[in-house]
Amino acid sequence: MSMVLDVFVGNTTIMDMDIYQLWLDGLTVREAVKARMDQGALLECEANAEVLMSDTMDQFRTFQLCERLLHSPTKLANQLLFQIPSQHQRMLIEKYYEFDSVFAREVLGKKLSKGTKKDLDDISSKTGITLKSCRRQFDNFKRVFKVVEDLKGPLVENIQHHFLLTDTQARDYAAIVFFANSRFETGKRKLQYLSFQDFAYCASQLIQYWTTGAVGELHLYSMVEDMDVDLEKEFLHELKDLKVLVNDKNMLDQHKVLVCAALRGKIKVYRLMEANFKNLSRALINLASKLTHTKDVRDLFIDLVEKVIEPCRCDRWTLGEVTLFLTQYTNAAHGLGTFSRQVVWDRYMGVIRSCILRMYHE
Amino acid sequence: MPGKLKAKIVAGRHLPVMDRASDLTDAFVEVKFGNTTFKTDVFPKSLNPQWNSEWFKFEVDDEDLQDEPLQITVLDHDTYSANDAIGKVYIDIDPLLCSEAATRICGWFPIYDTIHGIRGEINVLVKVDLFNDLNSFRQSSCGVKFFCTTSIPRCYRAALVHGFVEELVVNEDPEYQWIDRIRTPRASNEARQRLISLMSGELQRKIGLKVLEMGGNAVVGYLQCFDLEGESGLVVRAIGTACTLDKLTPGTAPNTNTHSNTAPASNALSKDYSRARVCVRVREFPFFTLTCFPPGFLVHVGGVVSARSVKLLDRIHNPDEPETRDAWWEEIRQEIKSHAKALGCHAVVGYSESTSICEEVCILSASGTAAMLNPRFMREGCLDAGGSDHRFEDASPPSCGFCHIPYDEFNMPFPAQLTYCYRCRRQKVPDVLFTTIDLPAEAAVTGKGCLIQARLCRTKKKAQGEVNATAISNLLPFMEYELHTQLMNKLKLRSMNALFGLRIQISVGENMLLGLASATGVYLSALPAPGGIQVAGKTPSDLNYDQHIATMQKRINDTITKNKELYNIHPPESTEELVGSPIPDRQRSRLFRSTSESSDELLELDLSHGKKDAFVLEIDDTDAVEDIQSLLTDAPMPAGFYSCNTEVMPGIYNWTSGLQMFTSVRVYRLSNANLTNQGLNKIFTELCENLLKSLYFKLRSMIPCCLCHVNFTVAVPEEELIQMGAVRLNCVCVCGCVFVCLFVSGSGENEDQLQFSMELCADSTPSNNQPTSKPSGTPHQPEMSENSLNFNFPELSLRTTACKPRCSPLPEGRSRSLRSTRSMPCGAPVAVVKMTPLSFLPGTRIVKYLGIINMFFIRETTSLREEGGVSGFLHCFIAEVFAMVRAHVAALGGNAVVSYSMKECVFMENPNKNQAQCLINVSGDAVIFVRESEQEATPPLMSSGQISSTGADGTT
């Protein structure tokens, strides 16, 4: 005797969120049954393995049937096939779009293409996340990317609107879309110590201050395409003008004097700072002036690490000291009488400062 | 030209991509009624077309209006090749023909295709202008209301109950027509769907005519069935009870909704019904399909009457005509009538008919409960309660009257043990009572009830024609006997003395017969306490053997004690005297039955054990050992669960409004290698037990929970469909259409908490689109703990100001859609539609019946594996059927389906060809309900007053 068919359908779709998690984790039915047994599901309601199996199968089938709808969450609310209480709907969407930051860290900045998808098994074995789950997460990234790619208006809001995600989730997805679009280099060995959250923070800074959307006036920016995805070209161009800070010897010296004056006695690494000032300043300004090239934009983070963070770390600067230095370094430029690019400078340094501070792990 | 049907196609959404190149669709719609077809313009390149068509007007006879469905076909325009059909919607416009039901049909319908399932949705608006036609020779019966509900619908009063109506129509099954060899299965399935839709329309019209002839205006307990006879045709038949119903005006309406199963029915209620005059003008068949009656209607209940007959379908002389089948049923009904007479009863209540077909053999079955109806109800005029000098009425309280024997004590139709009624001590009652009706509301019950099932398999030789029919009819009496014995034993084991809602299903397969009897056991306070069960061996010589018997006896006794505890059965002291008597009660049958085969040979069998003592089980052969084993292996229900197959659970009165209807289907494949009867029995019992266990587990989150109206259906599909390779296989399909209802037995506070959380589920739909209204972003979990009560209140007020209270009827839903279009381009969230096999929704009041829902769907696939195998295929199909039912109800303006049932679920597969096909027939009554707490607040307004009334919901 064998069971050929076993189906259970409720008018209100019954969904067990614990099993949903197992399904999202990419477990097979058999593995899920085992996991549930380990969790002590057999103690409930005098269940046996067969009952558990049948229940798990039913739930997995329901999720599979729902998956199509979850690909466009807005449909979930007005589809007729499943009657799902709305708080369950919300939970389904949230959990479906949840991702492992370890996984996100791996694909961050990579092109969301078929090629990358093929490498997922490597990521799977590296991170210990099942391939199925990796695929889901990857497809989610790609789907969100595809949808918001051609949309006008602010990125986070677009994501939230089309995928009904929570605020935090939408922000994280915005970071992923942003990184995938600009293809920032994140895979280098020297960058391995940075977590997804570090990058997500940097992305939000870049989105907030450096993109087209960041400057436009309210009524204007709803017209601009890709306003949050691409860095503003004009701004990147203007960054070239900052070169004067290192090219003009007087200005460089004056800048150093101002910074030194402000920091004297306030930081332990004062001497090292004084010795290194010109190198650091040159690194920061050169970085700015190169950003018109896509290649250099991609290398933004590796450059920051190699040229700024690593030297400081070598000299054992504390985070507080870096903070103080960058604050003074930024402010001091305002004291330079001949320096006229104050607005661009602030816009540039504001972001660079926050990024460096976030990326500076003592 | 007595009717004008108007239809308007508004828009479509979520359409499938029909043009691969552009990933879009050029959709247009064909609207067809009868022979007239209209088309909309093509809406190019869109998956969400806005047709906004003109009104398509059809001028038709009302006869056609009743028969024909409105057919809407969505197509993809193709310039060069033929247009591709996307899918269809059939709309039954019958609800619009009755002035009291729905006024228009308006809403989103799933577009359905027999191969692809649901493919997007279409928004349609339908109206009917009906001109009055007073022609007495008319063929139509517009205005006659149909109800699936087997009691007087909640917002009506029965002015007159006229009696039994039946009708049967026959047609050639499109699937078996010669043309089928050249057309695609899809075309033939569509033809089948259309035909059945037409046939059920015709059937309803004809029944309606009969009702009008009788002077009635409604059919209650309408039961429609399909017989897929195969080559001899397709039969659609229906039975029902004709009534004259008066609508209760809301102001004067008695609170019929409060489910008053607490013993004495309210006076207001009985007074109301006593005005109802039931004319049982001794009609041909004094049958009633009702299972629930107005108080005082039922005087005495005799017992179950049933009749079965085996027929050969290939012997029908002219298969296209209904005469032969009419004659068959006529015969069976006559039998039932004579059985009822033998029990001293003049009527049959809770009457139903069914068939089981296997190739050319067909078993026709009918069963009901013989009963005496109140003679006062049959006399002229209205009598006030209490004035009668009837010998039963003045003395016996209503809570036990129906238990008293209707037949003559000294001339009993079968040997029975009679005692004086334990309530009134005046009249005689039997020791056990079996019925097919629901437990009368006024009946006094001790403890709680429970679901009792008897299961049985019998093998038979594979045979053809007459031989086969004879073999089956020889087996039938034995099967009934054994099912009866099993039921009786299980009843005793639970210390109960009455069965309600008894339903015995016998299905025939090629080499086996299956019997499944389900009923709800209760302890009626009026009936004597059941004795225990004694085990006895025939040859008490061996010491070991004696010991074995002793342990067996002990186990049985222990189980009885445990069950008494479990079902809370503690009969009053006075019963002790009888329990203590050394002579065990005698088992006798309340089941009066007979079988006949095609040769019309009548066979009657007395089911009593004769001289043997009833509860002595002899275990001298393996059969008896098996019996006892099966008795004891019935797994007890997990704590917190109760189940019954009647409308209400006897002994439980505190219901919450939370409910969940579900359907579960299972198919097993048996290896046929020399299976014995015992082996099969064991397997079958395990299957049923496992299914129940599974249900309990799946619903564990709803504890405390009661499974009501659990309806099991078994079938043994034809063998060839599942034959694979050399191994001969057989297949059992258990299809339970089961329903769950939550109730709480704890404190009142807890109960409110539950209701409240259920409301939240429905309520929070719109806030889904406004994530900002919930800054935390964490989903709100309905919590059961008491302290969460306080925590929830701020949330509640926030919620209710954000959106209107939900359970007012449709207009509210529409306004909600307006609001949410702001935040969401794709339209409004879908309104919640509840479904239940009960005739009521706990905690709510039905304010309007919108019409009957009777739908038939076929789904097929040629890519079974890709759709997740048979389970994936059927899961999806059942979900689609639910969706379509909900959509139709919502379009009628309703928010629930009551008396819902899945009548038919025929599944066929051919795994080798990667194909499967399934037919489903569902029916129910579309209604509008309001929550009890909102009654005073109607009409619902979005005002502060409303908010406080909803808030009170949580506090009271």
From TrEMBL, chain A:
One of its GO terms (cellular component) is nucleus. It comes from Esox lucius (Northern pike). This is Fibroblast growth factor (acidic) intracellular binding protein a. One of its GO terms (molecular function) is fibroblast growth factor binding. One of its GO terms (biological process) is Kupffer's vesicle development. Coiled coil: none annotated. Pfam families: FIBP (PF05427). InterPro entries: FIBP.
TrEMBL record, chain B:
GO terms for molecular function: calcium ion binding; calcium-dependent phospholipid binding. It is found in: Cell membrane; Cell projection, Ruffle; Cytoplasm, Cell cortex; Cytoplasmic vesicle membrane. GO terms for cellular component: cell cortex; cytoplasmic vesicle membrane; plasma membrane; ruffle. It holds the Pfam family YbjQ_4. InterPro entries: C2_C2CD5, C2_dom, C2_domain_sf, C2CD5, C2CD5_C, C2CD5_YbjQ-like_dom, C2CD5_YbjQ-rel_dom, UPF0145_dom_sf. Its main location: membrane. Residues 941-956 have a biased composition (Polar residues). The keyword Calcium applies. GO terms for biological process: insulin receptor signaling pathway; intracellular protein transmembrane transport; positive regulation of D-glucose transmembrane transport; positive regulation of protein targeting to membrane; positive regulation of vesicle fusion; protein localization to plasma membrane. Keywords: Calcium, Cell membrane, Cell projection, Cytoplasm, Cytoplasmic vesicle, Lipid-binding, Membrane, Metal-binding, Protein transport, Transport. PROSITE patterns: C2 (PS50004). Residues 765-784, 937-956 are annotated as: Disordered. PANTHER family: C2 DOMAIN-CONTAINING PROTEIN 5. This is C2 domain-containing protein 5. It comes from Esox lucius.
